[in-house]
Structure formats: C-alpha cells, structure tokens
Amino acid sequence: MRNNHTALDDLIVYGGTLLTMDPQMRIIPHGVIHVQRGKIVSLESIENFTPPSGVQLLDAHGGIVLPGFINGHTHVGMSLLRGIADDYPLDQWLTKHIFPLERQFGSKEFVELGTELACVEMIKSGTTFFNDMYYFEAAAAAVADRMGMRAICGQTHVEISGVESNQEVFNKFDQFVEEVEKLSLIQPALAPHSIYGLSEQLWKDLVKYARNHQLLIHTHLCETQQEIQKTRLEKGLTPVEWFDSIGLWDQPAICAHAIELSSTDIKLLGKKQVGIVYNPESNLKLGNGICPVVELRASGAPIAFGTDSTASNNNLDLLQEAASGSKLQTFKYGVGNLKAIECVKILTIEAARALRVDDQVGSLVVGKSADLVVLDINQAHSVPLYDWYSHVIYSALQSDVRHSVVAGQILMKNRTLTRCNEKEIVSRAQSWGERIQAVNAQLAKST
Ligand SMILES: [Zn+2]
User: Fold this and answer.
1) How much distance in Å is there from the Cα of 288 to the middle of ligand 1?
2) Span from the CA of 447 to the centroid of ligand 1 (angstroms)
3) Are residues 142 and 113 in contact, defined by beta-carbon separation less than 8 angstroms?
4) What is the DSSP letter of 97?
C-alpha cells in the first residue's frame, strides 16, 4: 500500500474502476494510480481518497480506467482521403482513385496534416498507440511524437523495377531509422507493402536487413483472394508458406488482414507467434473476407484490432472495430467463441504482445508506462452495467472516452485535447479536402 504522495508524482488518476488487464485480470474498485516519470508506480483501492494538492490529478469517478487501446494497422498519412472513393471494387478503388490521388497530392505536408487529423481522432476515441505504415513516414513519426501519441512507424516500400538499386533502398531505410530513433515515443519499423509489391530478392534482402537491425516488419498479408491465387500460381506456395521459406517468420513480424488461411498456414503462424491484425471493417467494406481470428488464437498467434486507413473504413474508432469484429467472429464460429473479455484483451494486452511491446504497455501494471484511458459509464447507454468487459465491447461509444494519457502525459482531459488545436486541424483538413475533391471528380468522370 502506498497512501502518501511525493513531489515526484507526475500524475494521480483516482476514483474509477481499474480494469488492469494484468495476468490475473484484476479489477480494482475505487482505484488510485500513482504515476512517476511516465511510469505506473502503484495501483491501489482507496475508498474516499482525498486528492493531494500540488500534483496533477485526473478524476475518474463514474468511469472505467483501462489501458489505452492499440491500433495494429493504420496508414495515418492518408487520412485526407477519408471516404474518397466509396463503393468501388478494390481494384478500381486502388488503381482509378487512391493511387492517382496519392501521386498527385502525396507529399510531406499531406502526410503531416493527415497524421495530425488521425491523432486527434484516435486520442478522442481511446487509442494511445498505433502501428503505422505509409510514405513520408519520418514526417508522420515526428507529428505523432509531438502530439504525444505512442507509435511504431514503418516506412512503406513498393518496388518499381529499375528505379532504385537494393542498396539505394537500404540507404534510405538507414536514414529513416536514424531519424525516427531520436523520437522518444516512436519506434521505427520496415513496412514492405505486400508479397506482390516487392521482388523475391528484395524481400530476402529486407528480411536480412531487419534481422541485422532488429527491426519489426509490418506488411499486408492475404488481403485478397487475388493475392493468394497469384502467389500459388507463381510460387507454388501460399503467401504464408512463401514467407516462411525466406525466414520472415523467424523475425518479429506483424501482418494485416489474413482473410483466408489454410490450416497449415494457421499452425505455422501460431507456432512462430506471428502477430496478426484483424481489420474487420476495412475487409468487409472492400468485400474481401473475414480473418479466422478464433482459429489463429487457438494456434497461439496474438491478435490486434486494426482500422486500416480512413479511405477504407472510414474512421479510426477502435471501439467500433471491436464491436463489429467480435460479432463477425460470432457469426463465423458461433456464440461464445470470442467472448467480450477476449476482445478487450485484443484491444490492449494481446495487441501489445502482437507488436512485441507488452513489456512496456498493454496493461495497468507497476513498472509499465502510464498509457491509459478513462471511459465514462454514467450515460443512458451505459446503465445498468452488469459486466465491465461486455460493456466495453458492446455498449461503449467513442464519445465516452473522457481522459487519455500516454507516458503519464495528459493528451485529453474531459474531452478537450491538451496538446493541439483541434478546430484548427479540422479546418485545415476541410480546405485540403476541397482541393482533393476537385481532382477526384475528374477521375470519377474518366472511370
Ligand atoms: Zn493497409
């Protein structure tokens, strides 16, 4: 027990019910969390706690305090393309709209503003950590760090034959890693786009490079039937088998989508503990399929929820993603095969395991970083409340997120962002949107 505070306290969060997500899944009523130098130094239950003066305080009465949500797959830099070409089939969506618009508008400024907008949206909906991949990723990393978000930022690469030698590609990665490593909240990663986006040789070189530099590889895996069939035809293997043949699964890796896997694929991914990101809304919206989450978890593969980009979702709301994702698994496997409590793990500690950061975040435990959110439960849609976990998955809304904290820093207090001007960011995004829409209208005419 630790009843007194010291001048070293950065923050005290008090009065809420703590869903710790620790190995014992402890639930602590009347919780008081002391944070020093960004880390949790104690968690205890104190009824009628009297907050001290001279310390930063967050009042969580009438709320649930839980680890901040982790978004396993995003492209925050493309947030200005939210909903730009809805209801087109995937190939048309990509080749007739997204790719031409990225060619025309893709720039450091586009990515910076897209990331600012995404961070505002994520903080307001309870996300404190995201795993990203896109272009101009060093710019995205700098913005996220400035806004106080924790992230893994992966520089995306798609190979265009004859444009760059492999050595030139790795020189750029060297530069990217050096730049991002200076940021305290951001971890650099490699983000080769997909099995079909790079040559076999570059994939092999990249796996070696990641091994030598101890970098996570973040890629798209089995997103469409077309990708799976093409790989079988060209390589005689499934994408999972081919990646195994080049040693990718012996490296830390996180893969988004996995909408269709063979039973051998599932066993392999489980045995190698490959992190899989389940993006139910993007996969449904583009008509791709449903990730076999229940079977993957049974085989041992850790899962994270992901939103993918706002162009294919069209929001970054992880609570909504978890609600849709859990019900889809029930539809696929039957009631009770992915319970709400398991989905809250997927939002927090299991996602941290999938990204190999569970020694730092994902649960409210002494020694871990104070990355947490407070959800209001005094709302008409919240009461009566009989089960904390089913409330989070089936009832909670993003508007219930009252406070948000990363590394002991308050990013949102009583729904007001503390480190940026939300209105100003929204207004700049609206004016960019007008310019983008004018070009998109021309593209729509030509399809
Ligand atoms: Zn993606």
Assistant:
1) 13
2) 24
3) no
4) I
The alpha carbon of 145 and the centre of ligand 1 are apart by a number of angstroms equal to 21
Ligand 1 centroid vs 24 CA: distance in angstroms? 34
Which part of the chain is CATH 3.20.20.140?
69-354
- Name the more confident of 212 and 85: 212
Whether the predicted model's global pTM rises above the 0.85 cut? yes
Is residue 2 over pLDDT 50?
Answer: no
Answer yes or no: CATH 3.30.565.10 is held by domain 9-68+363-414: no
The segment(s) of the chain belonging to CATH 2.30.40.10 are 9-68+363-414
**pLDDT tens digits, 369-409:** 999 999 999 999 999 999 999 999 999 999 999 999 999 99
What share of the chain in percent tops pLDDT 70?
98
CATH fold group of domain 69-354: TIM Barrel (3.20.20)
pLDDT of 246 reads 98
Alpha-carbon 86 to chain mean position: 22
Q: What is the 3-state secondary structure (H, E, C) of 380-444?
A: HHHCCCCCHHHHHHHHCCHHHEEEEEECCEEEEECCEECCCCHHHHHHHHHHHHHHHHHHHHHHH
Region 131-135: mean pLDDT is: 97
For 16, phi then psi, to 5°, come to -95, 175
Residue 319, CA distances (Å) to 44, 84, 128, 215, 425 in order: 27, 23, 13, 29, 23
Q: Kindly give the distance from the C-alpha atom of residue 382 to the centroid of ligand 1, in angstroms, as a whole number.
A: 33
Distance from the CA of 74 to the center of ligand 1, in angstroms?
Answer: 6
Task: Report the separation in Å between the CA atom of 444 and the middle of ligand 1, taken as the mean of its atom positions.
Answer: 23
- Measured in Å, residue 83 CA sits from the centre of ligand 1 at 15
- What is the Å distance from ligand 1's center to 335 Cα? 29
Cα(256) to centroid(ligand 1), Å: 7
Residue in 324, 341, 263 with CA at minimum distance from that of residue 295: 263
Distance 307 CA to ligand 1 centre (A): 8
pLDDT band at 1 (very low <50, low <70, confident <90, very high): very low
CA of 126 to the centre of ligand 1 (A): 21
CA of 365 to the centre of ligand 1 (A): 31
Average pLDDT, the chain: 95
